[in-house]
Write a structure and sequence with these properties.
The complex is a heterotrimer of chains A (398), B (280) and C (209). In chain A, helix 5 links the parallel strand 5 and strand 6. Chain A is 37% helix and 21% strand. Chain A has 398 residues and is an alpha/beta fold. Chain B is α/β, with parallel strands linked by helices and 280 residues long. Chain B has one domain: 3-Layer(aba) Sandwich (Rossmann fold). In chain B, the strands form 2 sheets. In chain B, strands 2-1-3-4-8-7-10-9 form an 8-stranded mixed sheet, with helices on both faces. In chain B, strands 5-6 form a two-stranded antiparallel sheet. The N and C termini of chain C lie far apart (46 Å). The chains are: A alpha/beta (398), B alpha/beta (280), C alpha/beta (209). Chains in contact: A-B, A-C. The interface between A and B is large, with 48 and 43 residues.
Chain lengths: 398, 280, 209
């Protein structure tokens, strides 16, 4: 891997652990807590946010931890300001995070686009609740899957991870920071209310077992620094503000030196690189898990809390003689096309249960291209899909 | 009238950025750019420790010409980015350039909260009474009755007084000047940048292309002469009757006070957090 | 975590019998989330079992129906919410009415005898948790702990040792002896109940259907 990486848990990661339980020892943690601990372990040292159910636990957690490390925490006047502050802090060299839910995530879209075009690493947590608008503030939903991909205007790459358990909250958050730093792109940690508030027994990995990636910074003297000139990785090196590299950052399309340009021969390669820097490294981003998939006749494809319903459905179904298997998507965007293709190939049918009207099932159908029967299972009543509901749909499978 | 000394140009303007700039001939932003680099040179700041942040609009294009770290952000949000930069690296001098629409319409909420928070930032708000870059629509500072491309029959809303607003919101330093009063402007920018806490300089700058043309105020030169007639020094302003104030405005320092800054009060929280950890 | 694909072993054929689903329901402010936490930590951290706890809540910080669900199992827990509740505690009539629709036939049903006048089943065990906390312990707020004591005495869902450890690790300093006492009082209520009246049948009966 071209990015600088280290095997430590990041500065100060042990402090939290020593306070609230020894490393490696089992603890009962809430999803939001595990995500916060994951952020700290990955080196998060800046947080700006605005309170919102069901993500406030993260903001509160950071307000306790960051001051005790001498790092900045700030509650801003709204979510637009929160992500703005994160972009600023990231440009000044911090690992920044903000946390919100649907209504705030909608407000953040503007500066999320800025982070994409200015190639600023940062992590945005969106704990999904029922929407649109105020919707069902304390209920679970998965309605922001497509918003996480297409919420901001203009074409841009999106990196979105989705946890289904408390331990995945920790692991995927570390991954989210690593990929943000690696690709110089905002990463969206798309949890749902169920997982965010779920408490489970987890043993956090020991410090040495964590890979922490930091952005590549320029090593040339400031006069030689061309901010958006890249090597084969297509990911330019990022200088911290105030370190002698006096360069220009803008939300306008810019040339290699960072200056605005409208020349077609500069605009086209700019966009091409923005996409290629992610697509060239797809294999680093695609995370999936398989449950009993090898001999499955019917495959379930799910993510977030719904993957938990599916795991139970696979177990109960097999007890009843139904050969079910599950492909769990931990990466939602870029869409793990290859894993989904493999999971669909040769199955009798696929069922895609989700707490929306089919936001991922339409992607599955796109990838499937008509070969396997793909059934959408949507639920929008503010509650989880139960394993029995999934098994109930099996009657429809040809 | 002060000029920009060659050494200041050499030291503070970007060598690799193409001139001429994007602004209309006669625009006040060029004068402000000169004033700003003189104030920075005069203050003896280290270029590597200065960051210029701007929003969207004609004023948003100012930082790109200055040879410091420069961040051209989204419309109205410059102060939020600046807040993150300053908190991330408190040693940096962070200066924010915004327009009137930028700072008081779309970014109005950020402005009053930045003033209330009193974080060590300098906000330069270029007030030309209109949205210049998009073609002369009315802004929160467009006077009642004035014409704009979105107020062809005269503007129906009263206007904001940016300086009074930020004084009330809690900024440590607030001053108003114009691009006609360049010596005073240099001085006020210098004071604001040096000042601990949130500093605001409202800079009146003519937009003859849009605001002036629609309201028949004449050429850029005539608008500048207007500033000369209308501007009243703060000390005199207080003695004027409401009738005498009609059609005029005050220039000078409106507030210069010692309020605790965000970084100072946050340091208190850090120490309390550390003490709490020590006690277990 | 694996780079791309992680294969989990096929779920064991373990029957669902090893899974115990507990639902603690009442009104916001009665300390049911805390009770759930203590139960979950007792089972997970001190009895060494797998545990998941979910909660459901409305916009009210005080009042309104609120519940915590604790799933305890010897296997990895896949579905983390209750599907057929084995042990149900209701501290208000509203909670008893709202959250009793999916109880397992033969489930333990435990209610506060003063606050729940119409238990969801005639097999329900009604005990005076709030009255005991208020009158005997002079601290109405420990009714949740009294109830926990009764629950473990009746069902054995976690060991007393584990519950006591988990409880003392969670409660504010200086309230340890009060909480231990509340736990004992709860267990005593359940013991007295068991010795004075025949235990409700754990077998499904006609009324469960």
């Amino acid at each position: 891997m071209a990015a600088e990486s280290s095997k430590t848990a990041g500065k100060g990661a042990g402090k939290t652990a020593s306070r609230s339980g020894r490393k490696g020892q089992a603890r009962l943690l809430q999803g939001n807590e595990a995500a916060s601990l994951g952020a700290l372990a990955a080196g998060c040292n800046f947080f700006a946010g605005y309170p919102i159910t069901p993500a406030s636990e993260i903001t509160e957690f950071m307000s306790r931890e960051l001051p005790a490390r001498g790092d900045p925490f700030i509650q801003m006047e709204d979510e637009i300001a929160s992500i703005g502050a994160c972009v600023g802090a990231s440009l000044a060299g911090r690992k920044a995070m903000t946390a919100t839910s649907g209504p705030g995530f909608s407000l953040m879209q503007e500066n999320l686009g800025y982070a994409c075009i200015a190639e600023t690493p940062l992590v945005v947590v969106n704990v999904m609740r029922g929407g649109p608008s105020t919707g069902l503030p304390t209920n679970v939903a998965q309605g922001d899957v497509q918003q996480a991909r297409w919420g901001t205007h203009g074409d841009h790459p999106a990196i979105v991870f989705c946890p289904s358990s408390v331990s995945e909250c920790f692991e995927l958050m570390v991954r989210a920071f690593n990929m943000a730093e690696r690709f110089r792109n905002p990463v969206i940690f798309l949890a749902d209310e169920m997982v965010a508030h779920l408490r489970e027994k987890v043993a956090l990995p020991a410090e040495g077992d964590l890979e922490v990636i930091d952005r590549r910074r320029p090593t040339v003297p400031p006069d030689w620094y061309v901010p958006y000139k890249t090597d084969g990785s297509l990911i330019p090196r990022l200088a911290d503000l105030g370190e002698g590299y006096r360069y220009h950052v803008t939300g306008l399309v810019h040339d290699e030196r960072g200056f605005p340009t409208r020349r077609a021969d500069e605009v086209e390669p700019f966009y091409a690189r923005l996409f290629d820097k992610v697509s060239r490294h797809f294999d680093e981003l695609m995370l999936t898990k398989e449950y009993s998939l090898d001999d499955a006749e019917i495959v379930l494809i799910a993510y977030g809390c719904t993957a938990r319903s599916c795991r139970a459905a696979v177990r109960l179904g097999r007890e009843r003689g139904l050969k079910l298997g599950l492909l769990q998507l931990l990466t939602l965007w870029p869409f793990p096309r290859q894993a989904v293709e493999r999971a669909l190939a040769g199955r009798r049918a696929a069922l895609v249960p989700e707490l929306n009207m089919g936001q991922i099932s339409r992607e599955v159908k796109r990838v499937n291209d008509g070969r396997t029967q793909v059934i959408r299972h949507s639920k929008m009543d503010g509650t989880m899909i139960t394993p029995e509901e999934i098994l109930g749909r099996m009657r429809e499978v040809a | 009238m002060p000029t920009v000394h060659r050494s200041v140009v050499y030291d503070w303007l970007r060598h690799d950025k193409k001139f001429p700039h994007v602004w209309c001939p006669g625009c006040g932003l060029g004068i402000l750019l000169g004033s700003l680099v003189r104030a920075l040179a005069e203050g003896g700041y280290d270029k590597n420790q200065v960051v210029l942040v701007s929003g969207i609009g004609c004023s948003g294009r100012l930082p790109v010409y200055v040879d410091v770290g420069s961040v051209h952000t989204t419309h109205g949000r410059a102060l939020t980015f600046a807040t993150g930069i300053k908190l991330a690296k408190p040693a940096l001098k962070v200066i924010v350039v915004m327009g009137d629409g930028d700072a008081t319409a779309i970014g109005g909420n950020h402005l009053i909260h930045a003033a209330r928070r009193n974080l060590d930032l300098t906000a330069i708000i270029v007030n030309n009474l209109t949205y210049g870059m998009t073609g002369g629509q009315y802004s929160p500072t467009t006077p009642l009755g004035a014409k704009a491309t979105t107020a062809p029959y005269g503007h129906s809303e009263p206007s904001f007084d940016i300086s009074a607003l930020t004084v009330t919101a809690g900024a440590s330093f607030v001053a108003r000047s114009t691009v006609y009063h360049v010596t005073q402007l240099d001085q006020m920018l210098g004071q604001a940048i040096k000042k601990k806490g949130f500093g605001v300089v409202e800079v009146l700058s003519p937009c003859h292309t849009n605001y002036g043309r629609q309201n028949r105020l004449g050429s850029q030169l005539e608008m500048m002469k207007g500033y000369k007639k209308q501007a009243v020094r703060m000390e005199r302003w207080d003695k004027l009757s409401p009738a005498e104030r009609e059609g005029r405005f005050a220039v000078g320092v409106l507030a210069d006070r010692e309020y605790p800054t965000f970084l100072e009060t946050y340091q208190g929280a850090v120490e309390r957090a550390l003490a709490a950890r020590r006690e277990g | 975590m694996a780079r791309s694909v992680k294969k989990e072993t096929a779920p064991s054929q373990a029957s669902t019998q090893e899974r115990m689903e507990v639902r603690l329901a009442g009104s916001g402010g009665q300390g049911l989330i805390l009770a759930g936490l203590v139960l979950a930590e007792a089972a997970g951290l001190y009895d060494g079992r797998s545990v998941a706890m979910g909660q459901s809540y409305g916009p009210e910080a005080r009042g309104g129906a609120s519940k915590a669900e604790v799933i305890i199992s010897d296997q990895d827990i896949d579905y983390p919410l209750a599907t057929k509740v084995d042990l149900f505690l209701a501290l208000t009539q509203e909670a008893a009415d709202t959250y009793s629709w999916d109880l397992k036939p033969g489930a333990w049903i435990v209610v506060d005898s003063d606050l729940v006048s119409h238990p969801p089943s005639s097999r329900a065990v009604a005990l005076p948790f709030t009255a005991t906390a208020r009158d005997k312990l002079k601290k109405p707020m420990v009714a949740n702990v009294v109830a926990l004591g009764a629950l473990i005495e009746l069902s054995g869902v976690v060991s007393r040792r584990a519950l006591e450890k988990a409880l003392l690790a969670r409660v504010p300093k200086g309230t340890e002896s009060l909480n231990k006492k509340a736990l004992s009082e709860g267990m005593k209520l359940a013991k007295d109940f068991k010795s004075s009246s025949p235990l409700p049948s754990q077998e499904p009966s006609a009324e469960d259907v």
